[in-house]
Specification:
Largest sheet: 9 strands, antiparallel
Number of helices: 5
Number of domains: 1
Shape: globular
Order of helices and strands: EEHEHEEEHEEEHH
Distance between the termini: 42 Å
Strand content: 35-45%
Helix content: 10-25%
């Protein structure tokens, strides 16, 4: 799943660099965030912080994930909006908030998928929020900080402590920043 840096030009997303941007690895923004306070396993990156780590103006750029990079007829592009990390015991579990830009979208006749991904228009309203969970091999003190093998399932095991951390921090952002209701609230009276 490649990650690209896009420039925002008016109502358009324009690929800023031909090559992927690197999120993982020892010099990537995730490793640097975990190592800022190595005694605390919880860390997070807002979209502006992530973009500043690439030396670009966060008001004019976005990191976009291409979930279908092969030569398919559909386009699935998602904007990386927020990252929560939990780094402990030689690995890092990640929760990502993504905004759907184009999900399983077929470009209009005459437009190639490849050309569409170079420059595309923003939708008239924000896309759906989607959450993805992944892991990296490494924590605040050691590891290669690589995603799991290509072609393998990259699904983290989330202990109750880690899942609770993600839910609390995701809901804090939803309530305080996005002004949305929290996720996963259970009505215990109705469940009884």
């Amino acid at each position: 799943m490649p990650f690209f840096l896009y420039r925002l030009e008016g109502n358009d997303y324009v690929r800023a660099r031909g090559k992927n941007v690197t999120l993982a690895g020892l010099s990537g923004p995730f490793c640097r965030s975990a190592r800022r306070v190595p005694t605390n396993p919880e860390w997070e990156l807002t979209e502006p912080e992530l973009l500043r780590s690439f030396g670009v103006d966060p008001t004019q750029h976005a990191v976009v994930i291409d979930l279908k990079p092969s030569n398919r007829v559909e386009v699935s592009l998602y904007r990386l909006k927020h990252v929560w990390g939990y780094s402990a015991n030689h690995w890092t579990r990640l929760a990502w908030e993504l905004e759907t830009l184009y999900g399983d979208y077929t470009p209009p006749n005459g437009a190639s998928v490849k050309d569409f991904k170079v420059r595309f228009s923003a939708l008239s309203a924000p896309g759906d929020q989607i959450y993805e969970f992944l892991y990296l091999n490494g924590d605040a003190s050691d590891g290669a900080w690589a995603f799991g093998r290509v072609g393998s399932v990259n699904a983290p095991l989330l202990s109750a402590e880690v899942l609770d951390s993600f839910i609390k921090r995701i809901n804090r952002k939803r309530i305080e920043t996005d002004h949305l209701p929290p996720l996963g609230v259970v009505d215990l009276k109705a469940a009884a």
